[in-house]
Amino acid sequence: MSGATIRARFEVQRPGFSMQLQLELPGRGVTALFGHSGSGKTTILRAIAGLDRHPGGYLEVNGQPWQDDTKGLFVPPHRRALGYVFQEASLFAHLSVAGNLAFARKRAPAGGDTMTQALSLLGIEHLLERRTSDLSGGERQRVAIARALLTQPQLLLMDEPLAALDGKRKEEVLPYLERIAEELAIPMLYVSHSAEEVARLADHVVLLDGGQVLANGPAAETLARLDLSLALADDAGVLVDGVVDAFDAHYELLQLRAAGTRMQVAHKAMPAGASLRLRILARDVSLALTAPADSSILNQLPAVVLAVWPANTAAHVIVKLDAGGTPLLARITRRSYDQLGLEAGKPVWAQVKAVALLSMGKNG
Q1: Is the pTM of this model over 0.85?
Q2: pLDDT digits (tens, 9 = 90+) for 32-41
Q3: Which of 298, 299, 294, 340 is nearest to 323 (CA)?
Q4: In whole angstroms, how far apart are CA 287 and each of 145, 173, 178, 202, 332?
Q5: Residue 124 and which of 57, 222, 231, 360 are 20 to 30 A apart at CA?
Q6: Is 43 in a helix, a strand, or coil?
Q7: Distance in angstroms (rounded) separating the CA atoms of residues 170 and 177
Q8: Closest C-alpha among 246, 234, 122 to residue 172
Q9: Alpha carbons 196 and 184: distance in angstroms, whole number
Q10: What are 320's strand-pairing partners?
């Protein structure tokens, strides 16, 4: 891995948990640390923040060493140029929103002021005089993120920042996280156990289980791997890059170029030429041997079977497909797999029942 890079090496031993970690991560974009509770996600984040010191550890962030125990180097947390956003906003209750942000500005290095940008990115200009106790959960978390940005960090750590929010509040905050990822050149390590959040935000994924790294690579490639437990779960799916061709105003359908073909998605109008990210779940893909006729399913893609893997239930399998150079996953019953006589190399038609548009700008 060349260019901007985050290098981390930690060994953690405690009752019931052990980790021998050696990672190289992109020094730009969003890297998701993904896995079930207890997999080691927060352990890694706290070690990177310097909140927990593990003997023999090493950490380098884009060329700057923050820990190297072979040389006796350990930069304390308050001297690391990072912003940390926790599950709970943890705002100062005795201060207004403006007071909380002013406190963060005092920690920022001299010679720069990102207040205007942070307020705009998080859409909180109108909240400045409000008491933090009068904010909604989503508003509180947006203020907490703005507070982290105001320290002018070189690395942004987010420890399940949406976990304490309900579905509506999550949808409120997610677009702001996307804006930060797109508009600021700050690498972000994002801890989550939500496949939807990872698919929507991440450029790179580290999949963890029981303190072990199962996978470490680009999001699209990692999420499509059959050998990972992630690919066998109910929310298995792939990420697909798409480009807007046109908008059918009569039917309110967006015309896209994706997965080596044209696709249609029920969605509001978007500008032609816009790049975007799509998520196609394996459970929303069915297979046929011939091009289906008179079907209500709009998106039918020619594909070739690459491999098959057992699913997380005995009745199903996960089939990996090549659709014009784009990987797809289909979750079908073992009976259907046998009846269709599927095997590696066999041509099929993939019927995509639903496509989720996740975010814009991931391609450029």
Answers
A1: yes
A2: 999 888 999 9
A3: 299
A4: 43, 36, 33, 29, 8
A5: 360
A6: helix
A7: 10
A8: 122
A9: 22
A10: 307, 329
